[in-house]
Amino acid sequence: MSEYQYYEFQAIDKPLSEKDREVLRDISSRAQITSTSFVNEYNYGNFKGDPLKLVEKYFDAFLYVTNWGTHQLMLRIPRKLIDLDLASQYCIGDSWTIYEKGDYLIFDFTSETEDYDWEEGEGYLLPLISLRSDLIRGDYRCLYLAWLFCAQIDEIEDDEKEPPVPANLGNLNVSLESFADFMRLDKNLIQVAAENSIAEQKWVQNGQKLKIWISGLPNSEKDTIIFRLINDNDPHIGNELLQRFRKTKSIKDTKNNEKASRTVMKLLQKAEAYTKEKDRQIAEQKAKEKARKEKEAAIAREKYLNGLAGRENEIWEKVDALILTKKPKDYDEAVRLLIDLKDLAKKNITTYLFKSKLMAIRENHSRKSSFINRIDSAIL
Predict the structure, then answer these.
(1) Is the pLDDT assigned to residue 251 strictly greater than 60?
(2) Would you say residue 299 lies in a domain?
(3) Most exposed of 64, 92, 222, 372 (fewest Cβ within 10 Å)?
(4) Best CA proximity match to 169, nearest among 139, 124, 209
């Protein structure tokens, strides 16, 4: 299998009709098609459809994964539920795009790499789908992360300043962590960027203001909203109202970023310094752990050698007996005992005696090449 392409489309707000499924079946006879999904894998050949057009017409989410390092994610969201002016501030690099398609906006994120391992796409989309709900609720952290990825791969000028830093960037949920992994975003860069992000409990702060805003809506509009809720079965009425509510708030009320915006260069330099310091701390910790283990091993070795003291002649006799068996495992045991005798001799300042006896063993068993090779490898 030399090639792998994985396509997965998901319909969230509205299921596919029978006619929709027939149209999709004409595109691929091998695809797995349900009322909410279209999934296909290719080990040869190519997909005949246009993913962007299919998302525009049928689907709310799309995932594409290849074995040559391509990751692509599309999310379709009703235009009325997104602050396009704000979202556009994050869309600067080439690796992600906002397509305006009638009543919808399609967010298209792509990550390419030459340093890749074989991977398959099944299961990738599930944790990413809720990014769509986050965006609808006004959580634009994934858009900032997409901007940050563009900065990471040099798609943005060094002197370009960052867009508004969303709240809670230092506390990513599972979907955002999956998105960062999917885009191959440097975790240390995220950590540095999050330094300018406040921790905010939005509903605690805004709940009372939302109640006041709702009470101020005209009764006729409230009646229309209730009618739409019952008659139209619109899944986004609540989100549409939240979007209207957010637009009534001033920039100061959002408190998303009270610190000065940083340039791309400053973010990257600080992330590099952060990475070096983190690597230094890890290396220091590893060195301490290595020293601790070596000390424990030395103490254990000393205790072991102390237990052998006075038994040298017995051990020499055992070495001779093991050599005479001509068995590989006994040769190995004999060499281990010779190492013990060498360390004992060094401890007792009788190395000269050890070398003399070892020389005699080498001469007596010179024709046992396997054993002699073991002695040489042990540097005895």
Answers:
(1) no
(2) no
(3) 222
(4) 139
The token pair that represents 21 in the structure block: 């499924």
- Rounded distance, CA 61 to CA 11, Å? 7
241 shares its domain with 263:
no
Q: Is residue 286 part of a domain?
A: no
- Say yes or no: 217 and 274 in one domain: no
Q: pLDDT grade, residue 254 (50/70/90)?
A: very low
Write the burial class of residue 251 (CB in 10 Å: 0-12 exposed, 13-18 middle, 19+ buried).
Answer: exposed
Q: Which tokens in the block code for residue 50? A: 């246009």
d(CA 32, CA 102): 28
Question: Does 31 share its domain with 124?
Answer: yes
Q: Give, rounded to a whole angstrom, the gap between the first and last alpha carbons of the chain.
A: 51
Tens of pLDDT, residue by residue over 345-359, are 999 999 999 999 999
| 3-state secondary structure at position 66 | strand
DSSP per-residue codes, 142-195? HHHHHHHHHHHTT-S-TTPBP-PPPTTTTS--HHHHHHHHHTT--HHHHHHHGG
Q: Contact 74/108 with Cβ under 8 angstroms?
A: yes
Domain of residue 260 covers 5-200+255-278
Same domain, 105 and 137: yes
pTM across the whole model: 0.74
State the CB neighbour count (10 A cutoff) for residue 165: 21
pLDDT tens for each residue of 304-342: 999 999 999 999 999 999 999 999 999 999 999 999 999
Q: What percent of the chain has pLDDT over 70?
A: 96
* Tens of pLDDT, residues 81-121: 999 999 999 999 999 999 999 999 999 999 999 887 778 88
Q: Give the integer Cα–Cα distance in Å for 61 and 73.
A: 7
pLDDT score at 202: 54
Q: Are 198 and 170 in contact (CB under 8 A)?
A: no
Give the helix ranges, DSSP H, for 309-327.
312-324
